[in-house]
Amino acid sequence: MLEFTLLKTDGKARRGRVKLNHGTVETPIFMPVGTYGSVKALHKFIGWDKPILTDSGGFQVFSLGEMRKITEEGVHFASPINGDRLFLSPEISMQIQRVLNSDIVMQFDECTPYEIDGRPATREEAGKSMRMSLRWAKRSKDEFDRGENPNALFGIVQGGMFEGLRDESLAGLEELGFDGFAIGGLSVGET
């Protein structure tokens, strides 16, 4: 369940309230990031029963660089901790986030790099990546919707530095019917 209430606007700035299954969040908000399972461990240890937003793993896979191989089915990668061979797909990402009982779940996406082989990504490269993210968005939503899931699923807008591709991405995500949207593919090396 996700319910957003706009409380106040001032120019382009806005303040709101998001009601989620595990509580209410006032926006804008700074959200700390937990890694290597710290959030999951602390959730159980301290009895955390407040809102949780989880990422799909797309950015984390992006950060692995040469240790990963991206295919239509998902991403094969080596663990940066011990080198174990692992696989992550849209379906597996949704299953993991369901186990964590996240209030806001992010679709699995490919984070388009700003640079490929030392040069800015072309429109064609960014478009290919964005369209795979849209296909993964559909698979993420299908898996998320299996059974009853009371939480919210956000689509992630991709398209690199190309406004037209970002518009195409948003339109595709809107057509799939997500509960909200995130802006992806920024702060990935662009000037």
Q: Using DSSP, what is the number of strands?
A: 12
Structural class: alpha/beta
* Overall pLDDT metric: 88
Q: What is the chain-wise order of helices and strands?
A: EEEHEHEEEHEEEHEHE
Main β-sheet description:
4 strands, parallel
Uncertain regions spanning at least 5 consecutive residues = none
Identify the overall geometry: globular
The helix fraction, in percent, is: 25-40%
Number of helices: 5
Portion in beta strands = 25-35%
Report the span from N to C terminus: 38 Å
Trace the largest sheet across and list its strands.
Answer: 4-8-11-12
Please tell me how large the radius of gyration is.
Answer: 17 Å
Give structural notes.
It contains five helices and twelve strands. It is α/β, with parallel strands linked by helices. Strand 2 (13-20) and strand 3 (23-27) form a beta hairpin. Helix 3 packs across helix 4 (123-144). The chain is globular, with a radius of gyration of 17 Å.
List keywords for this structure.
alpha/beta; 4-stranded parallel beta sheet; 3-stranded antiparallel beta sheet
